[in-house]
């Protein structure tokens, strides 16, 4: 299991459209992926769970991945949240 603190640098923050892409990225990986914010712990592959977070640009989250491709999953998610091009 790996946990990484991340800052939302996407201009829109985590709104419905950016959440949809976040979920698509997390779902590409076999690992279980969760987002922790304050006292909330949600499945990063769940639309309903992610929609409850409402995190603006500059917000901070902890992303937890557990599985054989956990490092790759966190790296991909971090590139996305940093608003970087993803190859």
Strand tally, please?
4
Write down the secondary-structure element order: EHEEHEH
Largest sheet: 4 strands, antiparallel
Strand order in the largest sheet: 1-4-2-3
Beta-strand fraction estimate: 25-35%
Number of helices: 3
**Termini, distance in Å?**
25 Å
Unreliable stretches (pLDDT < 50, length at least 5) are none
Mean pLDDT reading: 94
Assembly type of the shown chains? single chain
Q: CATH first level: which class?
A: Alpha Beta
Classification by helices and strands: alpha+beta
CATH second-level architecture? 2-Layer Sandwich
Q: Measured on Cα atoms, how large is the radius of gyration?
A: 11 Å
Query: Which descriptor suits the 3D outline?
Result: globular
CATH superfamily: HPr-like
Number of domains: 1
Find the CATH topology. Histidine-containing Protein, Chain: A
Any overview of this molecule?
With 87 residues, the protein is α+β, with helices and mostly antiparallel strands. The chain has a single domain (2-81), classed as HPr-like (Histidine-containing Protein, Chain: A, 2-Layer Sandwich), CATH 3.30.1340.10. Helix content is 33%, strand content 26%. The chain has three helices and four strands, in the order βαββαβα. The chain has helices spanning 16-27, 47-51, 70-81, and strands at 2-7, 32-37, 40-43, 60-66. The protein has a four-stranded antiparallel β-sheet with strand order 1-4-2-3, covered by helices on one side. The chain starts with a strand and ends in a 6-residue tail after the last helix.
